[in-house]
């Protein structure tokens, strides 16, 4: 086994070289230094966030919200009156906010999560909850979702789609 080459240090003592290239000591590049600094920042807060993300309470909350996201709207439609819809809408918005917070924490503190399959899946599943709320109805009608004017808007939308379809049919016939 060959020993590392020796080089004189600033004090005059002879020390082994880290790089193994004779006469050229190893020095980190600026990119490596920036990466090390980024890792120090992430690692400084990582134990706390990792503890939160892996905690039993947080995982139970996220499982309950996931079950609600899967079945809550079906339960609302099957067993509750229109008067109770706002409670379900608020629960759906709360679940969406919690899913977004979890995604943000995972994105920042778990490098392997970034832009991966589960990240994309989480974005799609969270976005799919938007129809479970009255957010779209409020945006389209400017109302709180009472349904009176919304029904008229939906009928007008259907009529305009039928008109557009008829226009396309006329173009094809020409």
Account of the protein in words:
The protein has 174 residues and is mainly alpha-helical. β1 (6-8) and β2 (14-16) form a beta hairpin. Residues 14-25 and 166-174 have low confidence and may be disordered. The chain is built from 6 helices and 2 strands. This is Ion transport domain-containing protein.
Largest sheet: 2 strands, antiparallel
| Computed Rg | 29 Å
Question: How many distinct helices?
Answer: 6
- Secondary structure: number of strands: 2
- The secondary-structure class comes to mainly alpha
Distance between the termini: 87 Å
How much helicity do the residues have? 55-70%
Give the strand order of the largest sheet, numbering strands 1, 2, ... along the chain.
1-2
Mean pLDDT rating: 74
H-E order: EEHHHHHH
What is the overall silhouette? Answer: elongated
Percent in strands: under 5%
Low-confidence stretches at least 5 residues in length (pLDDT < 50)? Answer: 14-25, 166-174
Organism: Triparma laevis f. longispina
Keywords: Membrane, Transmembrane, Transmembrane helix
Protein name: Ion transport domain-containing protein
Transmembrane segments: 58-75, 87-109
How are the elements arranged and paired?
Layout: E1 6-8, E2 14-16, H1 30-53, H2 56-79, H3 85-109, H4 117-127, H5 135-141, H6 148-173
Helix pairs in contact: 1-3, 2-3, 3-4
């Amino acid at each position: 086994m060959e020993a590392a080459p020796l080089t004189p240090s600033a004090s005059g003592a002879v020390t082994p070289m880290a790089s193994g290239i004779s006469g050229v000591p190893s020095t980190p590049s600026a990119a490596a230094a920036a990466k090390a600094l980024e890792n120090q920042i992430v690692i400084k807060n990582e134990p706390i966030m990792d503890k939160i993300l892996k905690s039993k309470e947080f995982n139970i909350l996220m499982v309950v919200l996931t079950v609600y996201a899967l079945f809550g709207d079906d339960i609302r439609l099957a067993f509750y009156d229109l008067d109770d819809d706002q409670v379900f809408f608020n629960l759906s918005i709360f679940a969406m906010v919690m899913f977004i917070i979890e995604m943000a924490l995972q994105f920042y503190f778990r490098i392997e999560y970034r832009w991966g399959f589960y990240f994309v899946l989480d974005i799609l599943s969270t976005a799919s909850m938007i129809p479970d709320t009255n957010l779209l109805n409020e945006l389209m009608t400017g109302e709180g979702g009472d349904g009176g004017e919304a029904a008229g808007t939906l009928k007008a939308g259907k009529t305009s789609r039928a008109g557009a379809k008829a226009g396309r049919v006329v173009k094809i016939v020409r």
